[in-house]
Amino acid sequence: MKSTEEVRAIVEALKELYPDGICSLDYEKDYELLFSVRLAAQCTDERVNKVTPALFARFPTLEALANADISEVEQYIHSTGFFRAKARDIVLASQMLLSEYGGKVPGTMEDLLKLPGVGRKTANLMLGDVFHVPGVVVADTHCIRITGLLGLTDGSKDPTKVEMQLRKVLPPEESNDFCHRLVFHGRAVCIARRPQCGECVLRPWCDYFSKNVAEPAKD
DNA sequence: ATCCCGAGGG
DNA sequence: CCCTCTGGAT
To answer: What CATH number does residue A43 fall under?
Structure first.
């Protein structure tokens, strides 16, 4: 279990390393971020940023997306994977945004979760980045992995459990940016396949480092 | 073979 | 809890 001081130290260390605690998806409109996050499921943000400019140029409004032929949307987003479900979600969610929410992305967890293709991860990201709700935790693959290694959670891989555990220990005004910084850290240093512990500033507070790197268990 | 800022259904 | 959906990169 981490003390409040240790958590604060981790938060500050990451803030110093990655001053911008922001999302790396490119977007202009709120709904573009919503759909970009949907496209980012099991896909890199880098690849999403390669397909969204053409997609949002071909369908420049929510109305255009709502009336789009799903098979044509599939062609634009094919390289992001899960293209059938993603294309269907984008078109159906566009229709629902227009019919139920006046063409605006809703700002509550309850309403966001009603949109097809929007789960807790996407909803939390919108609440944090667009609506600036304090205490938001975006429990994505990087967040789950790294906070588990650090010992900020019990090691569970269940996104909702991780979200709830982190909510209890993270400063509400820092939690959203902190999650974005974990993404950067997951790409550059705490890489899933091989963590670069030698160059990690979080070593002093990391359970994985102290157990498996500093003093490897010899079996 | 494993991972990438997941969601939905059983 | 489990499984499936999908392509690209390493």
So the answer is: 1.10.340.30
- Verdict on whether the full-model pTM lies above 0.85: yes
Number of domains in chain A: 2
Q: What is the pLDDT along chain A (219 residues), one digit of tens a residue?
A: 899 999 999 999 999 999 999 999 999 999 999 999 999 999 999 999 999 999 999 999 999 999 999 999 999 999 999 999 999 999 999 999 999 999 999 999 999 999 999 999 999 999 999 999 999 999 999 999 999 999 999 999 999 999 999 999 999 999 999 999 999 999 999 999 999 999 999 999 999 999 988 776 544
Q: Are residues A169 and A120 in the same domain?
A: no
A121 shares its domain with A145: no
Residues A165, A74, single domain; the answer is no
Q: Which domain holds residue A118?
A: 30-129
Is the CB of A85 less than 7 A from some atom of nucleic acid strand C? yes
Q: Which of A95, A129, A163 is the last residue of a domain?
A: A129
- Which residues of A carry out catalysis? 121, 140
In whole angstroms, give the CA distance from residue A168 to residue A166: 5
Closest nt by CA–C1' to A143: B5
Contact of A188 with A29, CB cutoff 8 Å:
no
Q: How far apart are CA A59 and CA A72, in angstroms?
A: 10
Nearest alpha-carbon partner for A147 in A128, A168, A162, A125: A162
Residues A70 and A146 in one domain: no
Nucleotide nearest to A179 (CA to C1'): B5
